[in-house]
Amino acid sequence: MPISDVIPLYRLRIDTPRLTLRLPHPDELPLLADCAREPIHAVGEEPFENPIGLGRPSWSSAPPADRARKAVQVQLGEVAKWTADNWHLELTVWLDGKPIGVQTLYAKHFPVTREAATISWLTLAQQGNGFGTEARAGVLAFAFEWLEARSCRSRSFNTNGKSVGVSERLGYREDGIDVEAVYSGVARTSRRFRMDATDWHSRSRPSVTVTGFDDDCRTWFGIATQAARD
């Protein structure tokens, strides 16, 4: 029996003009591990959060073997602890059949709030080609058009210009700032961004195709089945 018969999330697939976003099957996890071994950002940069007290650089600056292990652990862990009230959809970003990063869509109490958030990473070699914008547009399309989200959030450190640029290109609105203490013992300011469903539908978007979002899959997100909707 294939794992997709047990966990319908593995049937879910989001296709954008150049990319495919989907969960890696168990036998594909070594490919994701190899992807995570590649540099995620330039030496000396710290674009990701790492709360003070952990006493080490962020995951993205960890040794390649540590990044590979953690990427696989996150994939397995988020599926294992998934509930309709608290979920992280850790979609691998595939380009020509090879992983180039991860695009996450996550939410708490989604059936009530209809609000989700995103976070992502791409290998350094694949940055600057518009893939980050395209991958996030893919999950936003899924959120707004298939999950019928009311809003989606994102957050980036001021120093993470690439992530901020993606939010601005896609039409998010500024939503305030946060000041956080990170592993180095310094305060860093992050910018919050928000997009509502009306913002998403207010402009033309790239073509996105979603397959595998059947009634079994819908229940994992706490969304009414099609029969109940009809």
UniProtKB/TrEMBL annotation:
<dbReference type="InterPro" id="IPR051908">
    <property type="entry name" value="Ribosomal_N-acetyltransferase"/>
</dbReference>
<dbReference type="InterPro" id="IPR016181">
    <property type="entry name" value="Acyl_CoA_acyltransferase"/>
</dbReference>
<dbReference type="GO" id="GO:0016740">
    <property type="term" value="F:transferase activity"/>
</dbReference>
<dbReference type="InterPro" id="IPR000182">
    <property type="entry name" value="GNAT_dom"/>
</dbReference>
<keyword id="KW-0808">Transferase</keyword>
<feature type="domain" description="N-acetyltransferase">
    <location>
        <begin position="18"/>
        <end position="173"/>
    </location>
</feature>
<dbReference type="Pfam" id="PF13302">
    <property type="entry name" value="Acetyltransf_3"/>
</dbReference>
<protein>
    <submittedName>
        <fullName>GNAT family protein</fullName>
        <ecNumber>2.-.-.-</ecNumber>
    </submittedName>
</protein>
